Amino acid sequence: MIFLGNHWGTLYLAFEWIIRLAMLVLVPFRRSPEAARSWLLLVLFLPIPGLVLYLLIGRPRFPKWRRQRFADLPRAGAAGSAMTRTAKIFPPDIEPSRKPLADLISNLGNLPAVGGNAVELLDGYEDSIDRLCDDIDSARQHVHLLTYIFADDAIGKRVIEALGRACSRGVTCRVIIDALGSRPWATRAVATMRALGIDARQALPVRPFRWQPARADLRNHRKITVIDGLIGYIGSQNIVAADFRAGILNQELVARLMGPIVGQLQSVFISDWYLETGRHLVGSGLFPPSDDMGQVALQILPSGPDYPIAGSERLTVALIYAARKRVVITTPYFIPDEGLIEALQSAVLRGVDARLVVSSVQDQRLVGLAQRSFYAEMLRAGVRIFLYQGRLLHAKHVTVDDDMAMIGSSNVDIRSFTLNAEANLIIYSRHEIGRIRVLEKHYFAASHELHAAEWGRRVISHKVLENLARLVSPLL
Question: Which of 177, 301, 339, 421 has the lowest CB atom count within 10 Å?
């Protein structure tokens, strides 16, 4: 018995070391150094649980069937032709020094910059819902809505009722909601919508042991709406009450769009619809002829695990390197990788006024701890940090100098960069950037600016917890 016990103990230890050595070779492939270090640290201390977790969520890739479906997207069909046509009809007025960035975005997301657009920024939570419902009530052909969270609370019911009224007029309404993001409400919300004639679907449902399963960590985090191919919405706001988390009030920023850019939002929705249903949406009404609605040059960047390059991350870093005078990053979650940290450090060394606006209110404790572990490093580099008070500032945008901005669903964290499907709007317009700067001034005024001496005085237990959370931050 003693011999057998020693025998099995030796086999167990050998198995653990086989896992460690195998993962030492496997983990670094196609993975950032930060993520590789975190996985290897986990496997070093907990080989078997680490292996199981790695097999479940270790590789930021969709299953083979979805990758094949993404490869089969009809990019060269009606959507691609519409994008090419509108780009030629409405050439964007972009400062020459920003054209390389526009080319980068086009190569990352396959969508060109276009002119002839109008932008309306909506920062009032109820106002944006009111405007959305009014536009749905005016719809004549179709409404396409994609969001991470769709609740069946008072806000969700208002939108559902507007969609139901549209269906009763003969308008085709299609809705995609993320299955995990909307989990507490998804079943009821989808059932209610389908009863009203709305074609509602759950994106990436997690159904173990079923055909075409989805991973729990790869989510569709986009928030876009397209109405008749003429009006579009993009931003950070979900279809849920501002206070859906007890004691926390969300503050958002949404852009309402008119002009050729709406066709790009439409192409993103059509692609996601095909990925979830396997059905191509066709028809002349999807891409109506574009009118000249304004003077603003815009561009959409979709990103996510489907794409070979982390587009949102690549663009964020590029924007920081492109800054000449000022860069302001507004995000509820800030967990940067080494490339983004170096970009901010380089910006300050060039004399750029680099500012980070994050919320003092946090809704995710582990993420909040990991986020705070980066503050000392940012402050030492000369980045000014503003802690927004009173509300969870859920708005997500980056402004560069006075002529370029990015607004959308992407946080400045590794999850948004590599695991989530995101959609961001890029704005090339001094007038529109000026309007965002006004919002930023409000953020600064409503914030507590953090200073290095003050931050260094926090208790040692907080520092320990923050740095422990930072060890697993690439896995969050």
Answer: 339
One domain, residues 215 and 328: no
- Measured CA to CA, the distance from residue 358 to residue 245 in angstroms comes to 18
Residues 130 and 113 in one domain: yes
Question: Which amino acid belongs to residue 20?
Answer: R
Regarding whether 134 and 34 lie in a shared domain, the answer is no
Domain that holds residue 11: 2-57
Span 226-254, average pLDDT: 96
pLDDT at 301 over 80: yes
Domain containing residue 256: CATH number: 3.30.870.10
Q: Where are the alpha helices (DSSP H) in 27-124?
A: 33-45, 47-57, 64-71, 78-89, 99-109
pLDDT at 184 over 50: yes
Cβ atoms of 189 and 224 closer than 8 Å: no
pLDDT tens sequence across 315-358: 999 999 999 999 999 999 999 988 999 999 999 999 999 999 99
Please check the confidence at residue 79 and state whether its pLDDT lies above 90. Answer: no
Closest CA to 396 of 293, 315, 461: 315
* 3-class DSSP assignment, residue 391: coil
Residues 6 and 104 in one domain: no
User: Do the Cβ atoms of 234 and 397 come closer than 8 Å?
Assistant: no
Among the three residues 30, 57, 84, which one is the final residue of a domain in this structure? 57
Please state the separation of Cα 22 from the chain's center in Å. Answer: 33
Residues 257, 233: contact at Cβ < 8 Å? yes
Q: Which two tokens stand for residue 86?
A: 């509108």
Which of 10, 28, 57 is at the close of a domain? Answer: 57
Residue type, 39: W
Q: CB-based contacts of 228: which residues, under 8 Å, 6+ apart? A: 139, 140, 141, 142, 143, 285, 288
